Amino acid sequence: MNAPVLTSTPRALPAEHRQQLMGLAREVAFPTGTRLFEEGRQADRFWIIRTGTVDLDMRVPGRRAAVIETLGHNELVGWSWLLAPHRWRLGAEAASPVRAWEFDAAAVRALCEADPEFGRVIAQWVGGVVARRLQAARTRLLDLYGPHGSGGLR
């Protein structure tokens, strides 16, 4: 199994920690339109996309869900599994056929506890993803619902 270079962060996981994480991976596939998770439900797994795309979406009262970001090759799908209460903060749907590495969240959290350095690296990796996605969500929601031109960075 070739370990991907993990992106979605300011810096990728070091090879040793990437190898530890990939030791817990299993291959999965999803057809277009498959819901990977729903906002508010238990976050018990996460994925790294090998091929295809996944749309992240957010419920908007009185409207259909807003697509916040589309993820692709080598990107992390899901971060809520790491932070209590382990509930999805967004929803996700396969926008095209997806092949991915799937990880059991409890197993990864157990490895984080058993190996504090691994846990620190994973926390930094996921923290970088959260920060980038928060900015993407803000920008996308302003583009959709704010005054014209308010979504750009200042």
UniProtKB/TrEMBL annotation:
One of its GO terms (cellular component) is cytosol. It comes from Streptomyces longwoodensis. PANTHER family: CRP FAMILY TRANSCRIPTIONAL REGULATORY PROTEIN, HTH-TYPE TRANSCRIPTIONAL REGULATOR ARCR. GO terms for molecular function: DNA-binding transcription factor activity. InterPro entries: cNMP-bd_dom, cNMP-bd_dom_sf, Env_Response_Regulators, RmlC-like_jellyroll. Residues 9-111 form the Cyclic nucleotide-binding domain. This is Regulator.
